[in-house]
Amino acid sequence: MTPDVPLNFDEPMVAARAAHQALCIPMQWLNNKVQRRVRGVPHYRIGHLVRFRLGELEQWRDRHATVIAPAREPVDGE
Question: Which residue among 48, 50, 56, 67 sits deepest, i.e. has the most Cβ atoms within 10 Å of its Cβ?
Fold first, then answer.
């Protein structure tokens, strides 16, 4: 969990696939423990399950948008 994101306990937790489909975050970033840690993906461990809150992920994604979708360099002729 990221400390600078306000907690919202009313928001449901979702699995990686639902988060991926809703926010277009790469599945590997959500499923892989090392990727989550390196990228600072906000998540919760419940036993062996990993769950996400869409609001927290959305804020995280917006702060890291240049990493997820870098600006495209113009190609000659464009």
Answer: 56
**pTM of the model as a whole:** 0.71
User: Within 13 Å, how many C-alpha atoms sit on residue 49's CB side?
Assistant: 8
pLDDT, one tens digit per residue, over 34-75 is 999 999 999 999 999 999 999 999 999 998 876 555 556 666
Structural contact between residues 14 and 22, judged by C-beta atoms closer than 8 angstroms: yes
Using alpha carbons only, give the angle 23, 24, 27 rounded to the nearest 5 degrees: 110
Mean pLDDT of 12-27: 95
Q: Are 14 and 55 in contact (CB under 8 A)?
A: no
Amino acid at 5: V
- Tell me the two tokens of residue 10: 């009313």
